[in-house]
Design goal:
single chain; alpha+beta; Umud Fragment, subunit A; four-stranded antiparallel sheet; 12 strands; elongated
Length: 181
């Protein structure tokens, strides 16, 4: 009887340790998310399931997940870092006056007539100033014609960033690592 009681106690301890490990990993290291909507098409698709890494700081062109409000998280691409001057002109991204290629948009550009990204200057967006504010990021969805992003909702506070993501794990047939080039 004592042996069975010890085995049960050991099983409960093992389960508790496993639950603590899962809690720590999900809270501080990695968490799963599901893409909801078309704002990141064609890079990501509605209902793709991804792993979000909470390790490190987001860099330009990383895909990030952030708290858009109390009930929703959004997934977008980092375009501007604090202090950056952002402009789109003739479907070309300029950061601090330097033109950048965005190869992750090539597939979309093949299937449209006209510009994918309408021309704008940062101060003409919801950010309302010439540079990305300190402690904030300027983010955009890859589906530039159908994305509620920093052009509309303003710069995103860095402390609202959940983490970065580039691993699609479901559906299994679409499992992949997203590259920014």
């Amino acid at each position: 009887m004592a042996k069975k009681k010890n085995e049960t106690l050991e099983w409960i301890k093992s389960l508790a340790v496993a639950l603590v490990i899962v809690f720590i990993v999900r809270t501080f290291l990695f968490t799963p998310i599901m893409v909801d909507g078309a704002s990141m098409n064609t890079t990501l698709h509605d209902h793709d399931r991804m792993i979000v890494s909470k390790i490190g700081e987001p860099e330009r062109f990383d895909i990030v997940v952030f708290h858009a409000n109390e009930k929703q998280d959004y997934i977008k691409r980092v375009i501007g870092l604090p202090g950056d001057k952002i402009e789109y002109k003739d479907d070309t991204l300029y950061v601090n006056g330097k033109a950048y290629k965005e190869p992750y948009l090539n597939k979309q550009k093949e299937n449209i007539n006209g510009d994918l990204t309408r021309s704008f200057k940062l101060e003409d967006t919801a950010v309302g100033q010439a540079t990305v504010p300190e402690g904030h990021l300027f983010v955009m969805g890859d589906n530039r014609r159908n994305s509620t992003d920093s052009r509309i909702i303003g710069a995103i506070p860095i402390d609202e960033i959940v983490g970065t993501t580039n691993v699609v794990f479901y559906p299994l047939k679409d499992m992949r690592i997203i590259k920014n080039d």
